[in-house]
Amino acid sequence: MIRLLPMDAWVHEVVALDQKISPAPWNAEMFLEEARLGAWLQVGVSGERTLAGYVVARPLFDEWHLLTLGVAPRFRRLGLGRRLVASLLGAALARQGRCVVLEVRVSNVAARLLYQGLGFVTVGVRRGYYRHGPYGPEDGLVMTWVPTAHDPDEGSDKIIFD
Ligand SMILES: CC(C)(COP(=O)(O)OP(=O)(O)OC[C@H]1O[C@@H](n2cnc3c(N)ncnc32)[C@H](O)[C@@H]1OP(=O)(O)O)[C@@H](O)C(=O)NCCC(=O)NCCS
To answer: Contacts by 78-81 with C-beta closer than 8 Å and gap 24+?
Structure first.
């Protein structure tokens, strides 16, 4: 079973996981600074002790920015990434968020499909937005989500969430 929790006590585990899976990992200070600025930071925890994933989003008035998202390789394709983002959409809705905005690498098909499945649409391209990564400089797609009558649809999960 995986529980979604505030990131508070999990920052060091999140940094360790982010360093493994992100082309441009954050350090602990970056996560803590977002928390100080009022960002929304959640983790998915398997059992009592195992970090499975994380998401960070910052509200800017009524516009929310999804800043980072990651799922540990052994917990992928189980619905956790979708659940973390759906949970963010729910939080944005609850706080009168008008939209959620994010950038995603053009090459990141998994993330693009995840976002599309939740109703995000591509609204622009930032040329060379990502300066470092496995493919060198890379464009970022700008995707946005706006609430509709049926949001957020969390799809069908393959693991049990608490
Ligand atoms: C992108 C990422 C968060 C997806 O997490 P996940 O928990 O595996 O995703 P989910 O199981 O919730 O998948 C939801 C949907 O996303 C899409 N998807 C996820 N991984 C995919 C893959 N490898 N290939 C194709 N589609 C994929 C599918 O549409 C999937 O729905 P389905 O399983 O019903 O077909 C994860 O691969 C990851 O951490 N990647 C590295 C970090 C990263 O890219 N973060 C996003 C930065 S913008």
So the answer is: 78/157, 78/158, 78/159, 79/154, 79/155, 79/156, 79/157, 79/158, 79/159, 79/161, 80/2, 80/44, 80/52, 80/53, 80/159, 81/53, 81/111, 81/114
Residue 25 tokens, joined = 């990992």
Mean pLDDT of 92-118: 96
Whether residue 79 has its Cβ less than 6 Å from ligand 1: yes
Q: In angstroms, what is the span from residue 94 Cα to ligand 1's centroid?
A: 25
Cβ of 77 less than 6 Å from ligand 1: yes
Supply the pLDDT for residue 158: 65
- Please determine, for residue 108, whether its predicted confidence score (pLDDT) is greater than 70: yes
Ligand 1: nearest atom to the Cα of 116: 29
Residue in 18, 66, 71 to alter for ligand 1 test, most ligand atoms within 8 A of Cβ? 71
Q: Kindly list the domain boundaries of the chain, sorted by start residue.
A: 2-145
CATH class of the domain whose range is 2-145:
alpha beta
pLDDT tens column, 35-54: 999 999 999 999 989 999 99
